[in-house]
Amino acid sequence: MLDNLAVGRKLRKFPKAEIKKRVVDAAAILGIETLLERKPKALSGGQRQRVAVGRAIVRQPKVFLFDEPLSNLDAKMRVQMRTEITKLHQRLQATMIYVTHDQIEAMTMGDRIVVMNDGVVQQNDAPLKLYHEPVNLFVAGFLGSPPMNFITGTLKAEGDKLRFSEAEGGTINVAFPAAERPAAREFIGKQIILGIRPENLDVAKFNRPEGRAKAADNAFPAIVDIVEPMGAETNLYLQTGAHTLVCRSQDSFDHREAGHRFQFQINLEKAHLFDPISKERLPDEGPAKLDA
Description:
It contains seven helices and 14 strands. By secondary structure, the chain is α+β, with helices and mostly antiparallel strands. The strands form four sheets. A five-stranded antiparallel sheet has the order 7-6-5-8-14.
């Protein structure tokens, strides 16, 4: 493996002493000093990945390019290597361009993420900015696991509120303060898409399956179709009549509660509205006046 790490510098006719120093330094950074005498076939997948990174470190480049480096590793090894590459970035303070289809890798490792679709840049921003303020449906749906829920419906003016009603007889019927959604005014009487992340959708605290629901601008009934206990949280797959939604709840559920009807609440402050034609997210802030 020592020769594998050194091959690039050998081809460039670097002095042997400098090559050895660079190889030893790179091995120390990656924690593979004890593996230098091993053959490649004697290495695990994660160790081979470190050797590939080590060859780049030995060259001392100003920019690293990683093209889906973890795609062939198992889930546990991917988590480990994500941590290793992040530590490497912090230690070397070098620019790293990391290409991946895995949004978890992008969110956990990137200082800045460029989201592309069919070769076109959709958004270039910090990870949390992308997550909380996606510019369009593609970005909103790409980031997040489970992904954002998209609900098609229509808007109507209702006093100082804008009421969203789910299409095709669905059960979602919620109202936004109009002053907080000025850009949505032009969609009154038209189709619009409501986006809500699973963690911003939860079981209403005021009901159980047999109880009566309180009226609320952000509440709606739905049937729990599938329950996925995850330990600290539970993923609930809901049927509203027109859509299947995912709710990430902190409450404890088990599989026996599948098939029950619950009331759910949307955190409307964190909900998004999208233009169904342009696919762009509507801005949230600004003054608004609605005609009666």
